[in-house]
Amino acid sequence: MNDHSDDPAAAAFPRLNVSYGQVFRSGRLSVGLVVPIESYPDGPVPSLTRHVQRVQLAEALGFAAVWLRDVPFDVPSFGDAGQTFDPLVYLGLLAGKTERIGLGIASLILPLRHPAHVAKAAASVDVLSAGRLLLGVASGDRPDEYPAMNVPFDDRGERFRASFDYIRRVADRGAAFDNPFGSPGGGMDLLPKPTAGRLPLLITGGSQQHPDWIARFGDGWMVYPHPIELQTRVVEDWRQRVATSGGPPKPVMQPLYVDLVDDRDARPVPIHLGFRLGVSFLRLYLKRLEAIGVNHVALNLRFNRAHTEATLERLAAEVLPDFSG
């Protein structure tokens, strides 16, 4: 197990907005939650019981961020409708119902939306929340959604790059440029502007891009869970590519499905993209992720069998103290 706390690559991350600076700390790991914060193991659609109150509770308990997903259709082969609400609309509500917690999307499917709409809606959330938006972006991996919107699936990588470029450029005051999605010019401007002058864009998985492109242009990387030995190599490769690109250090984060059992010393049993385990082994596992250079873990309670509020309270009492401050 490697400790990166004294590594030169563990230099401070840039402060792109308030939540980017609070959620991503070099050499440290923070803990967030995937929305909806509830258990729904037996079907794809959550009940959204007390959904806003649970986000507010997560904030009060000290979780670093909540993460919404972009799931436009309930696709049977995917088996998860996410939080059902459009993520940008929902973040507008959460911006007004919370004060400190990071507001993330993991991740917006860029090829299925016009980047002008993405840029305007995302900047609006960022301004309304006083700099708390964390925008994950991806090329999408649910083929059924593309014909439903009359968008080709095979060129989604090219569309992703074009959309990414558009969102970056349109943040500049009075930007004029040519792009496959359109060519703003003539003194027109897209408002509002992000609080820090640009939106923090974290890229999910490969998004049909070369790893060097992701390391150069992304503000961070969302990687899927892997066995710890493989994840160590994945994170080290990311850090090396970021360093080679010549830019500043950039964070890496991952989700983790958790079913927290009563026995605090229960050993981990694999479940979908995570574990059924006791709190002692969860703390140990998160510490191992922190040691290999993971900066944020978003816990997903979809398969958690214990009472949701009780689980949040337990995580706050027994896990968060090791990953805060």
Q: How would you characterize this protein structure?
A:
- The chain has 325 residues and is of the alpha/beta class.
- It has a single domain (8-323), classed as Luciferase-like domain (TIM Barrel, Alpha-Beta Barrel), CATH 3.20.20.
- The protein has ten helices and ten strands.
- Strands 1-2-3-4-5-6-7-10 form an eight-stranded parallel barrel, surrounded by four helices.
- Helix 3 (87-97) runs parallel beside helix 4 (115-128), helix 4 (115-128) crosses helix 6 and helix 7 crosses helix 8 (228-245).
- The longest helix has 18 residues, at 228-245.
- The radius of gyration is 19 Å and the shape is globular.
- Mean pLDDT is 94; it is low at 1-9.
Give the topology, please.
Layout: H1 18-23, E1 30-34, H2 51-61, E2 65-68, H3 87-97, E3 102-109, H4 115-128, E4 133-138, H5 145-148, H6 156-170, E5 201-204, H7 211-217, E6 221-222, H8 228-245, E7 252-260, E8 269-271, E9 274-277, H9 279-292, E10 296-300, H10 308-318
Parallel strand pairs: 1-2, 1-10, 2-3, 3-4, 4-5, 5-6, 6-7, 7-9, 7-10
Antiparallel strand pairs: 8-9
Helix pairs in contact: 2-10, 3-4, 4-6, 7-8
